[in-house]
Amino acid sequence: MYFTHADPVWNAHPRLRAVTLAVDGVLGTTSGHESGRERREALTARVEERLAAASESAMPEIAAWREAFSRMGLKPTQYRCASEALLRRYRKERNLPGFHPLVDYLNVVSMAFANPIAVFDCDKVTDGITVRHADGSEVHRTFQGETEHPAPEEIVFTDAAGHAHSRRWTFRQSALSVVSKETDRALIVAEALHPTAAEDLAALERELTAGLPEAGVRIVASRMIDATDRRLEFSYARADEETP
Question: Which residues form the B3/B4 tRNA-binding domain (predicted)?
Answer without folding.
Answer: 63-210
